[in-house]
Amino acid sequence: xxxxxxxxxxxxxxxxxxxxxxxxxxxxxxxxxxxxxxxxxxxxxxxxxxxxxxxxxxxxxxxxxxxxxxxxxxxxxxxxxxxxxxxxxxxxxxxxxxxxxxxxxxxxxxxxxxxxxxxxxxxxxxxxxxxxxxxxxxxxxxxxxxxxxxxxxxxxxxxxxxxxxxxxxxxxxxxxxxxxxxxxxxxxxxxxxxxxxxxxxxxxxxxxxxxxxxxxxxxxxxxxxxxxxxxxxxxxxxxxxxxxxxxxxxxxxxxxxxxxxxxxxxxxxxxxxxxxxxxxxxxxxxxxxxxxxx
Length: 294
What we know:
Blueprint lengths: L11 E2 L19 E5 L13 H9 L3 E5 L10 E5 L20 H12 L3 E5 L5 H10 L4 E8 L8 E4 L21 E4 L2 E5 L5 E5 L5 E4 L11 E4 L4 E8 L2 E6 L7 E6 L2 E6 L8 H13 L5
Parallel strand pairs: 2-3, 2-4, 4-5, 5-14
Antiparallel strand pairs: 1-15, 6-9, 6-11, 7-8, 10-13, 11-12, 13-14, 15-16
């Protein structure tokens, strides 16, 4: 989502980025219907911080719309839920973190995926991972509601690569769907443990950590720390007749700028540190939209 020094209120979509694809995977506005959830006080919306995400997918031929009512679920090919949050935690990023989803919504989403729907869950660092955990748990995933980080100097993005053994070969990276990749960059997100049926993509190693403060962004010597061995920040899974992608960081899939006392910084697929992220997102969407169950 951002570097550990970021004040989230300053995050904005990078409007200077204009995405042009020379080889779109679908004919313009003829591809699958992608709905971006805006019914759960989402931090990322189609016309907001996920505008670059929406524009990239539109360039790739997808029909991208905001989801303003869950009655639209039946008209959706791919549902994207990014950083949902309960109304009690809007502007109140401290424990307790409430589930953004009702029991009825979770049942409806799970049934929709089982019947062939394609679901893309993104739950960033606290409080978004906590707000999404009940939905994720219904599919067998469990989030650490905190701030995940690689064992490296801070103020740097997290690079998951074949070289550091954190990028796991999968249909999203081996060229089965789209372009073969050897690294993906994220910008401070969350972590999760996944069910055995899932395929890990972005994997943490021993020494990587999840910091779990009582209040988001406030860390001290008493902050709970969890080692992230056998945890992940990205995974995919077939579920019934449908498909599910779960990721613990949102900025990697869009383009944002943040301004603070040190200047203006780009983070997301507009960052010089994330040369493969556009292709990674395109691969992921291609996998989600494919008719087969691979």
